[in-house]
Amino acid sequence: MMRQYELLERVQRYNPQADEGLLNKAYVYAMQKHGSQRRANGDPYFSHPLEVAAILTELKLDDSTIAVALLHDTIEDTDATRAEIDVMFGEDIGRLVEGLTKIKRLDLVSKKAQQAENFRKLLLAISEDVRVLLVKLADRLHNMRTLQFMPENKRGRIAEETLEIYAPLAGRMGMHDMREELEELAFAVVNPEAHGAVTTRLAEIRIRNQGLIAEIEKDLSEKLEKNGIKAKVYGREKRPYSIFRKMERKAISFEQLSDIIGFRVLVDTTGDCYAALGIVHTTWPTVPGRFKDYISTPKQNDYRSIHTTVVGPGRQRAELQIRTHDMNAVAEYGIAAHALYKDKGNGNLSDESRAYTWLRRTVEMLAEGDTPEEFLENTKLELFHDQVFCFTPKGRLIALPRGATPIDFAYAVHTDIGDTCVGCKLNGRMMPLTTELKNGDEVEIVCAKGQVPPSAWESIAVTGKARASIRRAARAAIRKQYAGLGRKIVERAFERAGREFSEDRLKAALPRLAQQNIEDMLASVGRGEIPSANVLKAVYPDHKEERAAPPKTGGNGAVEAGWFGLKKGSGMMFRVPSGDPADASHAIPIRGLHGDMPVRFGDEGGAVPGDRIVGIMSPGEGITIYPIQSPNLKDFDDEPDRWLDVRWDIDAANRERFPARIEVVAINEPGTLAQIAQVIADNDGNISNLRIVKSAPDFSEMAIDLEVWDLKHLNRLLSDLRERHVVSSANRVNG
Ligand code: MN
Fold first, then answer.
1. Is 219 part of the annotated catalytic residue set?
2. Catalytic one among 58, 76, 117, 519?
3. What fold is seen in the domain 4-193?
4. Domain boundaries, the chain
5. Which of 125, 157, 519, 552 is deepest in the core (most CB within 10 A)?
């Protein structure tokens, strides 16, 4: 295991001003925290963060990044806390270590291949700082190097994840060496057969070409030197994974692969690159179509180099990469290299870094920042900050716009999930559906069958899909309610007329009612657009209508008697156009204000359970419920067709309050109002509104809107009010 001073020396080799105290403190702290923890291979656990730090010294990173590497597993795996790290190392380092902790927790979630792109975005969004990613990549590299010590059943997943997520990420950050190593290590695990085959063939070719690489290396170096170009030439074999990918991509066999050896020519200046190219091209025949100039047109990740392929000695094809040392550093270390190699010709760096704007931004930062530390400090990953990425419990990753709620999430998973959603768990805890989702949240949607999304959700949801679905579901639910009401109305009408009700008959009559289907027709009846009498007539054209008179004008004794003789607690009302007054079976059951019927209650005074009620149909609005004593009913005396038999159908277990208005005349003396309010409160009544209607020197008349359980409750309240000496009268309005 590397000693404390060895790590320090490594850092000081490239950064003489490194903060010794910080590095030593981080080393000791992490070592103590990990204590006797062991890795799978029996090594002390601390050797892992130490190796990760060492990898980052190869990338010549600043000392706070090295400290973060030492600390990167402490919050997750030891009793260390963010607060403690903040105090000891400062908030900046604390934030970075916490970022790594978040990413580590993400590793526990299984991921599908098609999710890789989203996952990479999530990583970038969650990292917020390029240093977090650099440490994460080094962490993954060390874990891959020691993968053989992991339990066998975990290796595959880790290697796949490396191939799908981390290696491409390293590539996009321009860290090609890191990318290649990650790929090779993962390739051997993910596809051992292919890896074995390619490696074997490579070994054969190596024997066949023995000395060839060295020969070309020497040849080329001498030629360049003769022409006054200072150059270093390195021969290299292509890596098995890149060979395998090429075979796969081009669907060719190993034999058809021509350029499995390559050379890198490193020179001092851009001018030397082109001079060297000229020498190469006059020495060996070139392979047409293989020349690429990434110096004049850099790649999107700012990779710059000249590529060409020649036919060398022994008719062996060889790929050459010609670049400056600075360009090489960028190619190997990518974003990390920008921290150290200030390119004076900054304008040459890809002006059109299209794919990853942040990379361009980091290059700009490079130009602005004076020190590598400052550069990294300023490089915040602002990419994808308009999105959040959340998981389903099964690990599917869902991308949503920022500000999205679990409602949006539910609809993004499936419309049915959204429509029947009633609650949610965020990271295992029940939370309101209005909660704003955060990156990496695991969202579990709780559904209930037959649920309809409240229309208020439309203003909470931020995605178009959710909003449109909520609107659609609300429309469908309302239509269904109206159709249900319409069905009851039609059934009762048929019953009263002594006619048989059947869907088949209704269907046959649809053309006469100019309706497409039964559901639509019934909904129209429910909305009061088609009188039930018309339906009856359409189905039974020969039916002779017996006009039922409205109750007050019809001289029906039962109704009059009913109005004066309220049966105590009967909870039931019937309007009886004809026949037995006790028979309420014709009446349509009406639940409370939030019941499943699209009904509303008259504005003035309202109706409370126990009141005898009637419904009045209004086209387009459905039914309005009035207590039978309501003076408003006079307006409908001439339209008996609009009257409906309704009755209360209140669920005793699921009670709700109903609005009722009373008028109180009281003596003006101090405390009168308080007394009245007290009586109402003592009786469990809610005052929703109180208005002084008339105020004389000695008396006041006030209108009070109450919420009560039922008629019994209201009457008890009124009689208690009347008992007070300050109250001269108390009466229900409309009552
Ligand atoms: Mn680790």
1. no
2. 76
3. Hypothetical protein af1432 (1.10.3210)
4. 4-193, 194-340, 465-653, 658-733
5. 125
